[in-house]
From TrEMBL:
Species, as recorded: Skermanella cutis
Subcellular location: Cell membrane
Keyword Phosphoprotein appears in the UniProt entry: no
Stretches that traverse the bilayer: 7-29, 49-77, 98-122, 278-297, 309-330, 336-356
Bilayer topology term: Multi-pass membrane protein
Name of the protein in its database record: LPS export ABC transporter permease LptF
UniProtKB keywords: Cell membrane, Membrane, Transmembrane, Transmembrane helix
Domain of life per record: Bacteria
Pfam families (UniProt xref): LptF_LptG (PF03739)
Length: 374
């Protein structure tokens, strides 16, 4: 029996690794499209792009793992059914719980990994990701001056760039500055470039004019220039004063948020984030329990169990969507937090009910685990 258990566990573990790697690669590719702009458009070093890619991994791996494990369970048990291996194992004395044991052991391991990710690694990764993005915005600001659109360069500053050259030169500049109340400034220039210095980020523009309107008197002053510098240090001020997001805070900070009066306006969001970290890893065990129950309870069909697989996938989609929706509701109203635990417990309860019910029927001699020709 131990050999059969190890045999199933090995197949499940290998399938989980491959599915996780595949999903991770897909998500990485979608993320890289956004992060690659820092390297291609802004001239940021490649190492910064690689760092950004690495720190994104823990932020989505806790969501990918339960889904990968379920996919591995459905694939492995369905393949063994079509190859009649499960029929042989049942003939050797393995019941539904014996067949499900390797999957449940692997699910417990994945659940523990999930808690390690959500409680410790993911918050650290989120903080590092925010730090690196802030670094990119402050040191490589040209990334965020995209051509053909109006770029918000901070509170009260809008920059339009008609075209960006490969050497970093900006052509066709329009800058609208409303940082001084009652005196908006509009700058038109033929070309310009960003300059990084100790004083901060500046845009140096050439061959243009500066128009300032005094809204109190309605008078406009105009200045023509050959060279003019526009201060964009608003970037650095904005990132220095940014309030850390709930996902960036450590679990200990979330647990003691009620003791910090400065966090009172964000307490609802922080509490919802804490309970979301507590419940999300449970889905690895719940999805696995539901998956093995759906595939192992009832008659075997050597032609495959596509209907059951579709039912399991549909159930997972509904539960995952419900968890996401309830999390969003709990951010504004913590009264919805208990529903997070309910949703996490539903697949466990459904799977246990089906497995225990089958065991009771089998003990009465009404077992339906006979192979069918399908």
């Amino acid at each position: 029996m131990k050999r059969l258990t190890l045999y199933l566990f090995r197949h499940l573990a290998v399938a989980t690794v491959f599915v996780t790697a595949g999903l991770t690669l897909v998500i990485w590719l979608t993320q890289s499209l956004r992060l690659l702009e820092i390297v291609v458009d802004g001239g940021a070093p490649v190492y910064l792009f690689l760092q950004l890619m690495v720190v994104t991994l823990p932020t989505f791996l806790s969501i990918v793992l339960p889904i990968s494990l379920l996919a591995a369970v459905l694939f492995t048990y369905n393949r063994l059914t079509m190859d009649s291996e499960l029929v042989v194992m049942r003939s050797a004395g393995l019941g539904p719980w014996g067949l499900a044991k390797p999957a449940l052991i692997l699910a417990l391991l994945v659940t523990m990994m999930g808690y390690g990710l959500t409680l410790y690694l993911a918050p650290v990764a989120h903080r590092e990701l925010s730090r690196l993005e802030s670094l990119a915005r402050s040191e490589f600001s040209t990334v965020f001056l995209r051509e053909g659109v109006f770029n918000e360069a901070g509170d009260g500053v809008t920059v339009y760039v008609r075209r960006r050259m490969p050497d970093g030169e900006l052509q066709g500049l329009l800058i609208h500055d409303t940082r001084v109340p009652g005196k908006p400034v509009t700058i038109n220039a033929d070309r310009g470039m960003t300059v990084e210095g100790e004083a901060g980020t500046r845009v140096v523009v050439f061959d243009g004019n500066r128009q300032e309107v005094d809204l109190a008197t309605g008078r406009m002053s105009q200045l023509y220039f050959d060279r003019y510098a526009v201060d964009l240090r608003i970037f650095e001020k904005q990132f220095a004063e940014r309030v850390p997001d709930a996902r960036e805070r450590s679990t200990a900070d979330l647990m003691h948020a009620a003791d910090d009066p400065d966090l009172l306006p964000f307490r609802s969001r922080l509490t919802a984030e804490l309970h979301q970290r507590y419940t999300s890893p449970i889905f690895a065990l719940g999805f696995t329990m539901m998956g093995v129950a759906i595939l192992l309870v009832g008659e075997f069909n050597r032609r495959g169990q596509s209907r059951r697989i579709v039912a399991a996938v549909a159930g997972v989609l509904v539960l995952q969507s419900a968890a996401l929706g309830i999390t969003n509701l709990a951010v504004n109203n913590n009264a919805f937090i208990p529903l997070l635990y309910v949703v996490a417990a539903v697949p466990l309860a459904v799977g246990a009910f089906l497995m225990i019910g089958q065991r009771l029927r089998g003990s009465r001699g009404i077992s339906r685990f006979q192979p069918t020709a399908g």
